[in-house]
Amino acid sequence: MCTLPQGATAYRRAEITLGGVAVREPFRVTLHAEIEGPHGLVRVPGFYDGGGVFRVRYLPESAGRYAFRTFSSVAALDGHKGAFEVGPAAATDHGPVRTDGGFHFRHADGTTHHPIGTTAYAWTHQPDALQRDTLESLRSAPFTKIRMCLFPKHYQFNHNEPDRLPFERDEHGTIDFGRFDVSYWQQLERRLDQLDEIGVQADLILFHPYDRWGMASMDADVDDAYLSYAAARLSAFPHVWWSLANEFDLMKAKSPDDWERFAAILQRDDPTGHLMSIHNCLETYDHDRPWVTHVSIQRIDLYKTAEMVTEWRERWSKPVVVDECGYEGDIDQGWGNLTGEELIRRTWEGTVRGGYVGHGETYLAENEVLWWSKGGELKGTSPDRFAFLRQVLEDAPGPLEPVPGDWDAPRAGIEGQYYLSYYGFNRPRFRTFSLDPAVAYLVDVIDTWGMTVETLPEPQRGTFRVDLPGRPYMAVRLRAQ
Amino acid sequence: MCTLPQGATAYRRAEITLGGVAVREPFRVTLHAEIEGPHGLVRVPGFYDGGGVFRVRYLPESAGRYAFRTFSSVAALDGHKGAFEVGPAAATDHGPVRTDGGFHFRHADGTTHHPIGTTAYAWTHQPDALQRDTLESLRSAPFTKIRMCLFPKHYQFNHNEPDRLPFERDEHGTIDFGRFDVSYWQQLERRLDQLDEIGVQADLILFHPYDRWGMASMDADVDDAYLSYAAARLSAFPHVWWSLANEFDLMKAKSPDDWERFAAILQRDDPTGHLMSIHNCLETYDHDRPWVTHVSIQRIDLYKTAEMVTEWRERWSKPVVVDECGYEGDIDQGWGNLTGEELIRRTWEGTVRGGYVGHGETYLAENEVLWWSKGGELKGTSPDRFAFLRQVLEDAPGPLEPVPGDWDAPRAGIEGQYYLSYYGFNRPRFRTFSLDPAVAYLVDVIDTWGMTVETLPEPQRGTFRVDLPGRPYMAVRLRAQ
What are the chain A neighbours of B338 within 8 Å (beta carbons)? Predict the structure, then answer.
């Protein structure tokens, strides 16, 4: 029985379902479809979803007629043909996020995407009520991307056993790495859909070192099958990003060749071509590799963090997403006990340098529910300031590119049109600007911590002085009239 | 007429005066003495002090009998002989500061010196009342060293003309670089004596780029004569340090050979062998040069400042004095608008890494009197915290040497005896220590900004947890019982 997509629209996953197929080792079955649409022929892998049901998921990127044929090692799955119509994208659907070819991101339809990231590594491995709390928090938070692991996390504050794992367990609790627990994946997909509904991209971390289940040191064939399965299930979600690893360099069981092979598997099995990167602890990956679409990076120096965006952009010529520059919190770990002020300072530093700096939160809690891993409630002072920054980004005439500024204050902008200077921990009581007198600028004095914008009553041109309050965390924005 | 020192004591300058000598070009006269004391024969240069008076100043470093003979190009100054007695040092006199052969400083008598530096470049070029204010401020301040220029300063906030210059001016105001204004030097020496009385070392800056008088671009023979004259006059002061330059690399009229020649002149003409270094702006000097006794450095990176002490110690194997890591203030220059908190954070960072970080203050003022250059009153929040740090240093069993700490918190100490960990902008709510259980430690929780020390009621040993308040700028000190 082959069911075709009904009412499909562009940028929404379309699913071909092949039901009632009983096979002995369904996860070893090979299945893919060739789908031919307005943009040519695409190879789309299928997967087993339990209960005798196989699926082929696809993310069409334009309206039109799509014809398909299935190919399988199992006769009952092979040779299915058909066609389906895809309607135009809904107004709220913009398609997967890709790079703009430079240092920024945009959706498939050209809409700018501003990654305002956060991290909750293991939020989908928590009890249901907590997962719902996390979604509620995200609904009113400014974040447009969340880093989250497919595998559960074992670490400080992370000792509870998840209800489900990506793989089946037998009655003794032994994991069978040859069989996926489809209920885990279905549950994950419900959460992904909920993230999509509230406009949050899912930066999916495929491997990480914080493990007590053996998932950080599986055999190569298990790794590969897992990646193919994840790609087959998840590539048709418009809002996923692939992160090969959190802290790849701490995964001692993996070699550089493994990471390269993993990237190749995803490139082969993800017909959508989602964003892909790999995140480090002590040493960065070779982000020059062609499959790396953007730099996903954890600061290496304890003191010079988001300021490194300038150097990283020059080094790799790709968008720079600083997924970890320290978290707001008060735990006993140096990566997780910044003030909100310092996290926001780093975020602005990285932003005006043309990068994207992410949020994280690690406040000590009796119940061990810390946002950075389990989600739950946001307690910190920084999310409101991320919201303020997001508004500044959305109000800008384009993505923020660095332009020459003062030696002590980085500046982003578009020459002759828009300038945004950030003073960080410095607190000048005034600053003098010298610009082309042909252009008049509206001058906004922005308190990035106090979240205020004060526009000077008169536009300024040429050389002019802007008075400042002598507090840290100020910015000055100039907008050409 | 030759007058011998009366009532001389060790570590106090002794002066041989040769009066009533009328010569046509007194500043071109050569004069020196050979002085033979308990430690052998020393060549001591003399100088012309106006009114027909020449002087030979010497700083004896031990009690005993000293015999001398003068040598001069002028017959009336040549061949004077005599001897004088030097008594033991007063209890408060410890002699010139030198390095301890490692990364720290001690006086000639072995007493530890903790440089807690400040800067007031042009304080002795200000009106007398302001100079007295500066001295009053220093009297109640914690600083043990002040950076100050021999030449006046021309710069933002520095436009007033000094009453006296090191060189004579004619009736038209033209400077005669061949004649020193002895009244300038006598006035300077009075100020030096007053600094000495209140326990402040004078870090004398011999050249600097901020000039409208031509002193930054004098002829080589004028440079050399100036240095010889300064050395002859000032070497016998126990508390002077030589700084060849402030921001040598901005002095475009000087070449590397010039700096090396200047160092050689001071080495020849300073029989006391005072500390000597040279301070940078954008690029550091080659502090490996043998005449460089210690590293005097301005931070180069805007973000990673005193944290660099670790690297600088390794690079040069000399004491590291961070004379500029940014100043507390609110002017429009990035080097002068830090909060007190950030300056003190940098200071502690550098301190527990085994360096010495200095103070500076630049608050905008209507009257253009900013401490960093003109002195006057201290207005900032950091001096009290420098005083607190000074007390911590004085209470330590020895100079602070870095020892292995946590990855996120530098630590100074003496293994098995004393540990001082600093958490900076991080704010852990607790920290766990693991030490040899054979030793019990008194645990002090130190708020470096709040200036409090809370000693836990019970000594701790082995592995123990120390609770912290979750604020930035905390330190933990462990003292073996």
Answer: 425-427
Degrees (nearest 5) of the Cα angle B451, B453, B458?
Answer: 170
Instruction: Enter the tokens of residue B326.
Output: 């940014």
Q: Is residue B64 part of a domain?
A: yes
CB contact A430 to B (< 8 Å): yes
**Structural domain span for residue B408:** 402-480
Span A92-134, pLDDT tens digits: 999 999 999 999 999 999 999 999 999 999 999 999 999 999 9
The alpha carbons of chain B give a radius of gyration, in whole angstroms, of 24
pLDDT score for B382 = 98
Measure the CA–CA gap between B190 and A233, rounded to whole angstroms. 84
d(CA A46, CA A64): 22
C-alpha distances (whole Å) from B374 to each of A116, B148, B156, B386 are 47, 10, 12, 20
Q: What is the pLDDT of residues B425-448, one digit of tens each?
A: 999 999 999 999 999 999 999 999
Check CB contact under 8 Å for B333 and A428: yes
Output the pTM of the full model: 0.96
Residue of B nearest to A469 (CA): B330
pLDDT of residue B20: 85
- What SS3 state is found at A148? strand
Q: Are residues B185 and B296 in the same domain?
A: yes
**Do residues A154 and A193 share a domain?**
yes
- Please identify, among A333, A362, A395, the residue that sits at the C-terminal boundary of a domain: A395
Verify that B413 and B359 share a domain, yes or no.
no
Indicate if B316 and B425 belong to the same structural domain.
no
Between helices A256-269 and A220-234, what is the axis angle to 10°?
30
Residue A462 identity: G
Same domain for A377 and A412?
Answer: no
Residue B247 falls within a domain, yes or no?
yes
Are A66 and A51 spatial neighbours (Cβ–Cβ below 8 Å)? no
Does the CB of A417 have a partner CB in chain B at under 8 Å?
no
B408 to A334: CB separation less than 8 angstroms, yes or no: yes
Domain count, chain A: 3
Return the SS3 of A34.
Answer: strand
Find the CB nearest B304 among A303, A333, A429: A303
**Tens-digit pLDDT profile for residues B209-226:** 999 999 999 999 999 999
Say if CB A371 and CB A120 are below 8 A apart: yes
B304, B428, B432: residue with CB nearest A304: B304
Q: Cβ–Cβ of A426/B304 closer than 8 Å?
A: no
- Locate the chain A residue with the closest alpha carbon to B327: A426
pLDDT of residue B235: 98
pLDDT of residue A318: 98
Per-residue pLDDT band for B413 (boundaries 50, 70, 90) equals very high
DSSP, collapsed to helix, strand or coil, labels residue A400 as coil
Please give the share of chain B, as a percent, with pLDDT higher than 70: 100
| Residue A449 CB coordination number (10 Å) | 20
Q: Measured in whole angstroms, how far is the alpha carbon of residue A244 from the centre of its chain? A: 12
Tell me: the pLDDT tens digits for A38-81? 989 999 999 999 999 999 999 999 999 999 999 999 999 999 99
**A364 touching B (Cβ < 8 Å):** yes
> How would you classify the pairing of strands B31-37 and A54-58?
unpaired
CB atoms within 10 A of CB B33: 25
Q: Rg for chain A (alpha carbons), in Å?
A: 24
Residue of B nearest to A346 (CA): B303
Q: Which pair of tokens denotes residue B171? A: 């009736």
Contacts of B257 (CB under 8 A, 6+ apart): none
Boundary (domain end) residue, out of A395, A414, A436: A395
Q: Is B303 on the interface with A (CB under 8 A)?
A: yes
For residue B333, the chain A residues in CB contact (below 8 A) are 408, 428
What ipTM did this prediction achieve? 0.94
Q: Which two tokens stand for residue B185?
A: 């030097």
Q: What is the CATH number of the domain that holds B149?
A: 3.20.20.80
